[in-house]
Amino acid sequence: MDTYLQAGLDALGDPSRMAIFMKLSGGPIAVNELARTLPISRPAVSQHLRVLKDAGLVLDRKAGTRRLYQLNPEGVARLRAHFDRMWTDAMLSFKTAAETPPAKAAAGRRQKNATLSRRTRRS
Q: How many domains does the chain have?
């Protein structure tokens, strides 16, 4: 798996980082503004932004005396491509299963169960 993709998925596994990510989807925001809308401290917001930035999901730029954070389009595109692939694969598997005649599907399940049963007995 792509290292940046894995880092992005790991980063979004934290509820606070996911909340920050969602707020940034509305456009660039300064740390102070983000901190006012979240139940965590400003230093914690900064730490979460650092993790999101290191994962390639967030960019920052200086705007006068403030630093604005925004989503990184490349990082978001990487996540989207991953989920698009997963969705496509899942739908193809569903289509294959739906189009498989019932007798053939049952035989496949019996064969799979027999294989699992043999593996269990060997253990």
A: 1
